[in-house]
Amino acid sequence: MKSLTQSGSLDKLGITASIACAIHCAALPVIITTLPLFGLEFLANIWFEIGMISLSLIIGTYALLSSYPKHKKALPIVVLVSGFLCIGTGHILIESLESILIPAGGIVIAAAHLINWRHTKICRH
């Protein structure tokens, strides 16, 4: 039986979580006024956002660090860290660019999983 990292399932989950985070962060400023009409005001909650970032961090760290011994490529880890730095910069340092930096960080994190998945797929030993 293949493990989650060997089958790429964890990277697929990471890609999905990261893209969901990017969509959430990009769309929220536009649709925030309509959320209460649909009972979705929880999406604007800071704890929901922290939860999504934490989930992406946990999945990303586990997926990439467990795959690293197989393919020995640091690029996915560098890209993952860059994505989280982008998100952190948008939240903490440059709040005026938050609506650009945070979704971009989510896309970069998804790219890290995609790169990791491809390296793992190529390296079958």
Automatic annotation (TrEMBL):
One of its GO terms (cellular component) is membrane. One of its GO terms (molecular function) is mercury ion transmembrane transporter activity. Keywords: Membrane, Transmembrane, Transmembrane helix. The keyword Oxidoreductase does not apply. Pfam families: MerC (PF03203). Signal peptide: none annotated. The chain crosses the membrane at residues 12-32, 44-65, 77-94, 100-117. It comes from the Bacteria. This is MerC mercury resistance protein. It comes from Pedobacter duraquae.
